[in-house]
Write a structure and sequence with these properties.
3 domains; D-Maltodextrin-Binding Protein, domain 2; 15 strands; 11 helices; binds 3-phenylpyruvic acid; 5-stranded mixed beta sheet
Length: about 350
Amino acid sequence: MADVSSKKIVIAYLGPQSSYTHQATVDSFEESKYILRDELSIRDVFDAVQSSTATFGVVPFENSSNGSVLYTLDLLIDREEALPEIHICGEAYMDVQHCLLGYVSKSFSSENRDLQSSMSSGSATPTSTKPFPQEPRSKPLTDLRHIKRIYSHPQAFGQCEAFLSTYLKGVERHEVSSTSKAATIVAEDKEERGTEAAISSRLAADVHHLAVLAKGVQDVEDNTTRFLIIQKGSVNHKNQSLLPGKFQILNDLRPKRKALIAFSINHETQGALANALLVFKKHALNLTSINSRPSRIRPWHYIFLVEVEGEKEFEDPDLLHLALKELDTVTEGNKWLGCWVDRFGM
Ligand SMILES: O=C(O)C(=O)Cc1ccccc1
């Protein structure tokens, strides 16, 4: 449990307010006990934690239908060594139902509500690369022909492909730092008023006084995003006691733990990647995902990020230490990025 002094504890999150990350932060940290502070970018959240202007940070990490958030992976890898003390100390899952937000077309009246059916056949156009495109799950609630530009976070665009390619095919897309930033831009851009739209949350529609032009526009019904909580220093750091009880790894009775480790290998050594992965097997650390990012030192050379699950292995620092020592012998370099309580399904 966070104590009374935790009133001063600052949690930095990817904002502005009403982003999905904000909602995950509110679900994780009671607003009466913590100061929740919005940041403009994922980088700003990491910087705030590294510079100790915030004790914890919350960032999007992975989506069940669209995969990893590359910005977050790159910041965790920290090629420039500007964020050396950042460690993951928790995770939170959130169901994400996207909406298309904007303004109802002035020409859309009760007489022409049937327009929607003529706007589109309601099915995505087959192409040679995608002969059987996915059908959109929902229909627009209003005419969308006035929309000339759509704003959102790249992750959200990736999660709404079927709807966008069916009902807003060819409309200019602008990637911005978050879904709530997208809603802010649409709400503020008076010049373009009416012709811009954002993929954002239902909450953002209320906060920014925008109309919901379509609901549930993501490709799959079960669309979950995983967020990471980051701190400065590793798991034994005093900060742990400042986390809400459900994230405290040392107190939590649930057996399952997760960890993330980054490593690089010598690409010229045959079997180098397989040898690195074998270390996890040998130490009973179940590999659950592997991501790779370009090293940016040599083209076609990569840094790998593996996520592992375990139980008793995480309670015995000697066992972990042994595994990491062995990893040293088969990798060019590796970095322990933290371990945390598995909160899937909680
Ligand atoms: O938090 C947000 O609003 C973001 O823009 C990141 C994001 C994007 C899509 C799904 C979940 C989080």
